[in-house]
What does this fold into?
Amino acid sequence: MQLSRTDFCRLLAAGALAGCNRPAPETTKKAPTMKKESYGKTKGGEAVDLYTLSNAGGLTAKITNYGGIVTHLLVPDAKGQVADVVLGFDSLDGYLGTHPYFGAIVGRYGNRIAKGRFKLNGTVYKLAVNNDANALHGGLEGFDKKVWTAREAGPQSLELTYLSKDGEEGYPGNLTTVVRYTLTDANEIRIDYEATTDKPTVLNVTNHTYFNLSGEGNGDILGHELTLEADRYTPVDAGLIPTGVLAPVEGTPFDFRRPTAVGARINADHQQIKVGKGYDHNYVLNGPAGTLALAARVRDPKSGRVLEVSTTQPGVQFYSGNFLDGTVKGKGGKAYPQRAALCLETQHFPDSPNRPNFPSVVLQPGAKFQSTTVWKFSAA
Ligand code: GLA
It folds into this structure.
């Protein structure tokens, strides 16, 4: 049917051709959406999913609600070459086996509590002991081995919730922990932690990702240049429990206030290096706790990739992968030898429940624990 010009104008005036005088809609660039796929089942038969977050900057993160594990982190270098910069496995099976907390959320108490006990309001609590005489990373079955309830909190934001029941691994109080991973267009992974309890308790929740900015399975991290925004650290005893002293890094192999290769002093003749078999120490961050500030910067001269870690936490555990020994076979069956990666676990200081001079890790009913850590990637 052909319309005369008069008919066309009449219809147009009557609104019957609404839209025909508007410019064609622009093809709006849609934010990529999160992909969800089945990741299999735990040994107990619980279904687990894998979520893929991606952004316009070419960064892809894969995260499972089993242990809140960051399984893959695909990061471009300056030439756009993408590498997976985190240690891990190809499938859920690997994570269900024995491994040193690859990519996982650790809690309730990340790091060590001496002799697996602490006193709170006059009661002594006895925890599961899993690291010689001490409690490490939440006990026998910590947050890293739990199936978390997942919710898509935004286009590139995955929210994970876990209720740890009163008495789990010896800790008091029903503790609800919410961890939100958000991938931003500024090539950041932002991790927001929140927790509430119905009884006074202690907590120290963090993420235990192992980074190698050259790509997982691609050599060691001894050439990575590290900067730590810390004038002091917490020296440890033979069981890696802090002595309580906040020691200056000045004049020691622990001084990373200027960019220094991780390997430059890792075999130094220093008592704390010997005790840690390298670096396995908590740094006391200079920035005021509670304010998001730069804690660490890592640069891989080989690929040019840079990771900046900012946090609201008072400390960061710098672990140089000393206990990796090639027995765990990771992605593609690759062995991960000693120092194949490093961890920067933003946290409260180890053994804080037994150290009144350390910042408090006590959470009271009615209060909300909140912390934020940001991993920002770039390349030069
Ligand atoms: C932490 C500890 C290390 C080690 C690893 C896991 O970073 O500080 O001593 O236990 O976890 O192997």
Observations:
- The CA atoms of residues 98 and 328 lie 8 Å apart.
- Residues 33-379 form a domain with the Beta-galactosidase; Chain A, domain 5 fold (CATH 2.70.98.10).
- The pocket of alpha-D-galactopyranose is lined by residues 100-101, 111, 136, 240, 280, 317, 319, 323, 343, 345 (CB under 6 Å).
- The helical segments are 5-13, 92-96, 271-276.
